[in-house]
């Protein structure tokens, strides 16, 4: 409706459609969560409730946007995968990133008090967001493998680090030095020999992160079905009969399922082919 | 820390630094607020509380980001101006848009219950965001003039429209036809002759939108100043004296001021030269 | 070597790497060739010599740049296909477009007098260029099909148009009207019934354009091979014998082959699988 | 005209308009001129004829494109400045770069034999090109200062280097070491004390590069002016008189002027204000 002589400034906006026929991944990541997690006293190295809140916000985003087929989260980040031919917001890069980032934030903040009833949100969190196109399924799988490998590497490190500090009584500096140059095997052994921790027994959500897929599930509900007496099935028209019957009908509904499995292994992609469309 | 063979996928990210030596404007705008405002029964055409909540969220963003010098909001949108030489997030377009969009959203959602204590947030709002560079001060001023002209045109229309519907009892369709092809003067007259409304007397916040500027304000606070008895001023060292005195000291602090004036007129820019740096 | 305080201006350049793992097509197209072909009196609608000059320039580009695997030309344009994983100029969009455009131009101008010995180049031609990434083989094939379909549609039209004008004596305006709303079948019939032209018998280069592929061809050359008398094969060291023998050796060399076939049909892609790598 | 089901592939092209209200600089630079200048035995370190050929090609580009107001060249490169509000090719980045690069190349190749009548062009040259927007006049001036400072630094170095090699008989390696860590003053002294060369007396074109500006020059030509006998000035209609007179008329024409002055100093910009529009 609104037109004015100033409108020319809109032309300074850049067109930013992402390449067609590519899979778009949007990743959100907590802004300065080093500080945010401290201020809100998250459990170290993994705060189950905080991770569940992340999963909740991500699931809400998944439900709201039809074209999302897969999401993966760990630490303060979540990645969302669009199907290849999505035309959501005409594939505009900044729209996709900003809208998903904002929606995720809104659900995170709104649900905070439900997940942390005793912990007020003293300073609201923010998430940066980006949208990146990937041209092949292999690239898409490697993207998610990248994030899960990152989860694994960080979690093994953090589990060892905080064991040394919280259980072993080392200062953070000494713990850091102790771990420098160790490889995965060393850390596994350290955890077992010094703290009796079998890393394999750690919660899958910590080791593997969280994966959200969409599934069609049948559901049954009672429904009023009108009776049409002129039907061959009801040959006699009756004035005084009921005008409907109650029947159980079965429909499909899309549900978001949370998993904590390997998404590097082939098996996941075979089991959930709908995750990459 | 984390390195894996999958890391190559990061190279699919695009570098997106905005042109140096330009003023960057980030605008956020409510996603589908047509529906959101209905669901949450905002007053028509202007919900004062909702606008105040927008202003609150925007002021919080202004306070958090030093390099923002000006903000302007109306309806479901807010624009933020960075100073010309900002290096915030290295001027990365999607970072700027997504972080400001997310921060704004977080403050909006978090403060909702304070502004609307009796209205639960049934569905969280989202805001899209964009970042646009402007190369000259004239372009910057025209940008803000564009948004304020938009506010004026829409508000005059909406005020007339809802007067016809809510007070005049017209259907929305008839009201729309009634207003089609009218110019500003016609609407002013209609409001006055039919509803006794002098458009000039409408609240400035509705007609002009809200402008946020930063100002340095002196503030005075009491402060404990330690006494150093070895000072020439206190030549005698005394064991039993106080170790500090309470003094009033004056500092400068940055405050965000909310205005409802014309930002099209020269006067505003003369009065607040710090608004465009 | 050169550093000065002015060097900061280089930062205003935009990074423009094309998405990894995509096939890049560079297309050059004559700038204002409507005028250029008139000024240099090209035969209408197809100037064989001019098309051969285009093919010559394109073949030279193909030979110079290893990563090019396919080229297709028609009218005043030529398209070049890079292999998927090329890192030529780090996949920088403007570098790729400008260098190929410039190289093509240089060969076109340099070879002009050889192709048109009696026609001086009164005004040098220019070609615009662009570089476009395609994420799938199907997109790549459709790209080339697009250009060949364009060749077909235009050539059928132009052949009919110039037959009407040059042989039928119609004015250009009347010829245009005559052809408006005709479909391919109509034009074929018109050519045959009015001018005895069987469109199928037109030269393949006009109907299909020109396709350049690379092939490895064995070639044989005489080569001096030194004799090592200490070899087991030559057990007796002789002072007075020859120090080499002349032998025929066979090597592979890359040659550029020009074709005038359908590149829409499957057959081409089966015969030249190396055309899309 | 041409439409086919394959046309969708055009949508993979990216919109690339450069920011409005900025000054666009297009720079072309010889591709691999290290090798090209060797193969064609350019005089070291400066080949006057080659530089004149560059100037010729650049002047032709300037004449052809109205919106270019300034050009500067040195070594194997040339920069062209568009006026701020140009809409040439809708400010499309790749079009601007590729067309100017191609046009420059065409003129360079076409004029080669005129500048080097005894030196055949054995391998055609190519030029890369780029288009960069600058938002302020200061940035524009600094851009050109950057290129001229580069010319100065390189030319002083190259003059010293080739004096040591060609006149001093040093190997290239020794000459390089000799110059390493020297500053401008050292090189000036070396040239003077060892070779009697006063660097100040070197040709301005070598030291300062070449600058092209546009100027309006009046020119006078004889023109047939028809006589209208019905004019008040010629009251008597005569059948047998001449129907025209020959008159000298004066018009303005745009000429491209070549300069070899400082474009870092204020003076140039004051004398040629039309160079930055
Ligand atoms: N205690 C605790 N900290 C966590 C948890 N999840 C994430 N964090 C912290 C660890 C890291 O300091 C931080 C995530 O690292 P990032 O690389 O994202 O850095 P950060 O968010 O500080 O900065 P950024 O704005 O993303 O560049 O969040 C958790 O469950 N418990
Ligand atoms: N009742 C009421 N509605 C408002 C108020 N402020 C904004 N709105 C509504 C009016 C418009 O329907 C909507 C803003 O228009 P937009 O052009 O931003 O469209 P919308 O947000 O629906 O879609 P979008 O996602 O921005 O494309 O918000 C208010 O104070 N009261
Ligand atoms: N007579 C003649 N004309 C040709 C031949 N090949 C191409 N042309 C002409 C026909 C068209 O007018 C022109 C190519 O059309 P374009 O769509 O490329 O337009 P043009 O180059 O004029 O403008 P542009 O700068 O590409 O937008 O070249 C030929 O073999 N003979
Ligand atoms: N002998 C001689 N050489 C020149 C003259 N002008 C330029 N050159 C040579 C010197 C440098 O090797 C080369 C220009 O350096 P560039 O940095 O542009 O490198 P080059 O063109 O080799 O590679 P590029 O494709 O631009 O990255 O051209 C000249 O007048 N005489
Ligand atoms: O959303 P509109 O229609 O008010 O206009 P816009 O925000 O400039 O358009 P878009 O959101 O599509 O960039
Ligand atoms: O933020 P980091 O360091 O974890 O790595 P990144 O998110 O890939 O980097 P950036 O946020 O700067 O794009
Ligand atoms: O080519 P160089 O090294 O002189 O420097 P440049 O031209 O700025 O670099 P590039 O051609 O890679 O953009
Ligand atoms: O130039 P046209 O009209 O043949 O079509 P195009 O080349 O796809 O358009 P443009 O040159 O403007 O990108
Ligand atoms: Mg990050
Ligand atoms: Mg983070
Ligand atoms: Mg993180
Ligand atoms: Mg919008
Ligand atoms: Mg909105
Ligand atoms: Mg809006
Ligand atoms: Mg074109
Ligand atoms: Mg053309
Ligand atoms: Mg063409
Ligand atoms: Mg270069
Ligand atoms: Mg060069
Ligand atoms: Mg150079």
From TrEMBL, chains A, B, C, D:
Residues 138-264 form the Thg1 C-terminal domain. Binds 2 magnesium ions per subunit. It comes from the Eukaryota. It catalyses: a 5'-end ribonucleotide-tRNA(His) + GTP + ATP + H2O = a 5'-end phospho-guanosine-ribonucleotide-tRNA(His) + AMP + 2 diphosphate + H(+). The keyword Magnesium applies. Keywords: GTP-binding, Magnesium, Metal-binding, Nucleotide-binding, Nucleotidyltransferase, Transferase, tRNA processing. This is tRNA(His) guanylyltransferase. It comes from Allomyces macrogynus (strain ATCC 38327) (Allomyces javanicus var. macrogynus). The lineage of its organism: Eukaryota, Fungi, Fungi incertae sedis, Blastocladiomycota, Blastocladiomycetes.
């Amino acid at each position: 409706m609104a037109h004015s002589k100033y409108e020319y400034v809109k032309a300074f906006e850049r067109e930013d459609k992402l390449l067609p026929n590519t899979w778009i991944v949007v990743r959100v990541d907590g802004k300065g969560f080093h500080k945010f997690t401290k201020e809100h006293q998250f459990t170290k190295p993994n705060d189950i409730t905080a991770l569940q809140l992340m999963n909740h916000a991500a699931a809400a985003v998944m439900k709201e946007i039809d074209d999302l087929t897969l999401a993966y989260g760990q630490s303060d980040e979540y990645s969302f995968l669009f199907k290849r031919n999505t035309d959501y917001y005409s594939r505009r890069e900044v729209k996709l990133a900003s809208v998903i980032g904002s929606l995720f934030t809104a659900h995170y903040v709104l649900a905070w008090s439900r997940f942390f009833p005793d912990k007020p949100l003293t300073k609201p969190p923010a998430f940066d967001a980006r949208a990146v196109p990937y041209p092949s399924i292999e690239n898409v799988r490697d993207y998610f493998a990248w994030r899960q490998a990152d989860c694994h590497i960080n979690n093994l490190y953090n589990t060892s680090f905080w064991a040394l500090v919280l259980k072993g009584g080392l200062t953070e500096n000494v713990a850091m030095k102790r771990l420098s140059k160790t490889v995965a095997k060393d850390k596994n052994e350290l955890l077992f020999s010094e703290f009796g921790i079998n890393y394999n027994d750690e919660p899958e959500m910590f080791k593997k992160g969280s994966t959200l897929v969409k599934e069609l599930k049948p559901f049954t509900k009672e429904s009023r079905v009108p009776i049409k007496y002129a039907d061959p099935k009801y040959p006699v028209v009756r004035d005084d009969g009921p005008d409907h019957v109650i029947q159980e009908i079965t429909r499909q509904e899309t549900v978001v399922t949370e998993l904590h499995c390997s998404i590097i292994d082939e098996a996941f992609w075979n089991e959930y082919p709908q995750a990459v469309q």
